[in-house]
Amino acid sequence: MPNTVITTREEPIATVQINRPDVLNALNEEVLDELVKELTKLDDDDAIRCIVLTGNERAFAAGADIKETFVTATPVSMLKQDLTTRWEAIRRIRTPIVAAVSGYALGGGCELAMICDIIVASETAQFGQPEINLGIIPGAGGTQRLTRTVGKYRANELILTGRRVKADEAKAIGLAAQVYPAASWLDDAKALARTIAEKPPVAARLATEAVDLAWNSTLDAGLEFERKAFYLLFATEDKKEGVDAFVNKRKATFKGK
User: Is residue 13 part of a domain?
Assistant: First the structure.
């Protein structure tokens, strides 16, 4: 059996690819378990400073594996799957993750992309939360993260109609940071990851935590975390290196210390 998740290291970045092309990279327990394992392994590796999470040209992930997951599912079976633990484990990865989306990112695929720190899209990308067509609603954060991204009224429109959002609209509503040509989307995503990987990794991790907290907490709590993280970074060697490089007009070399 082929690996459902393939990891390629190109230090200081790594690419994690969902590999179920026969079902448009539909997500099941095996895929999520493998994603958690691979992302955790990379997160613990100081040589990796940014991760690209992707699928293939046709699909980032077309949603949950409906035949495997939903057809005979009951509330008890869904509870036993403990999907929340897997999704939370991915969300808590500290290394910045760039979701590189080509083709379909629907349902759970869209929710997986929204867990990442940055979403970039091929011009062929299509996002959506079509769960309403199955008689259910998004169940892996879609109602919450989509609303925080695009606002209440547009989120309701997308969730209640189940319609798909193409790449240009995704960028316009804030769901994608950049749209890349179909011929170079993955290379462009890796180039972005390399740019991020050149930055001081401690500062990058604290920055993503602070931005994530803006979603999940109050303004006062977010400002308090930001202030403490800001002060903490003055104790790092990377701060000294960055300031010295600026003053002396040279390129900084950050070591994550």
Answer: yes
